[in-house]
Design a protein that fits this description.
Radius of gyration: 19 Å
Helix content: under 10%
Structural class: mainly beta
Low-confidence stretches: none
Mean pLDDT: 96
Order of helices and strands: EEEEEEEEEEEEEE
Strand content: 25-35%
Shape: globular
Number of helices: 0
Number of strands: 14
Strand order of the largest sheet: 2-3-4-10
Amino acid sequence: LFPEGTPNTRPEIYTMGHRNPYRISVDKKTGYVYWGDVGPDARSADENRGPAGHDEVGQARKAGNFGWPHFVGNNKAYHKYDFATEVASEPWDAAKPTNNSPNNTGLTELPPAQSAFIWYPYGDSEEFPLMGTGGRNAMAGPVFYSEDFADAPRALPAYYDGKLFIYEWMRGFIGVVTMDEEGNYETMEHFMPSTLFSNPMDMVFAD
């Protein structure tokens, strides 16, 4: 994200702006990074402070800033807030977020914020209704490739080739995300939809 030698930065940083990233996975073919990010607890939006809490599934195709603590979800903006006076002002600008904290040891002007790949609140999601409602604990990856299991006696069908598997610890389901050739979201469906999974917490594919 920051070229080596950039003042007040570290060259090993690939992404920033995460709140609680969990179950990180790298697509072996595209190099895209996927993760679940557990969001804040606010059950509803506050017109003076910002949006309701959302969990996220992230996709990083390249180095970037994924928004937190200025934004959540698809760059839903929190308001600037003066902790000394306890007064909120205008929302943050996703194109030009800044870190004005007195504890900041890095850059003041931050890279533009990137949207989450999938995002959802406690309640119904207009964009991703299959995520359901209730408690939230997003997890993501891996991406399935049929070629890895050509000789497996009980391999998943080729239908799942190249699809991203996501899962929800609190809501007890596994989702399958279909993407286009560039990695853009197309559709989502439940995997084994009649099964309630007991707090799925990690996922690997094996013979």
